[in-house]
Amino acid sequence: MRCIQATRIISDSHERSLELQENMGLKMHLLTCPHCRRFQRNCKTLSMMMKKFKDSH
User: Fold this and answer.
1) Are 26 and 1 in contact (CB under 8 A)?
2) 19 to each of 23, 34, 35, 57, how far by Cα in Å?
3) I want to staple 18 with a disulfide (CB 3.0 to 4.6 A). Which of 23, 33, 47, 52 is the partner?
4) Could you tell me where the DSSP H helices lie in 1-57?
5) pLDDT above 80 for 7
6) What DSSP state is assigned to residue 57?
7) What is the reported pLDDT for 54?
8) How many CB atoms lie within 10 A of CB 18?
């Protein structure tokens, strides 16, 4: 899996459940790619911030 595929799957995972093959491929990629791990952390943080903002208004 390439980083472009991994980032797309990470983004998709916030909107839908991943298929088993997608999930396993992503996990394997994240084991070896620090850049995509950082992207995943940033996406989670951004998602949490957006939920908190929505709930406060």
Assistant:
1) yes
2) 6, 23, 23, 34
3) 23
4) 3-12, 20-32, 34-56
5) yes
6) -
7) 85
8) 14
Taking CA atoms, 24 is separated from 1, 17, 46, 50, 52, in Å, by 11, 13, 24, 27, 30
Kindly tell me if the per-residue pLDDT of 22 is higher than 90: yes
Closest among 18, 16, 8, 17 to 43, alpha carbons compared: 8
Side-chain half-sphere CA neighbours of 51 within 13 A: 7
The pLDDT score that the predictor gives to residue 57 is 75
- Residue 10 CA to residue 45 CA, distance in Å, equals 13
Residue 45 to residue 43: CA distance in whole angstroms: 5
Average pLDDT over residues 30-56: 94
CA dihedral 26, 9, 4, 41 (to 10 degrees): -80
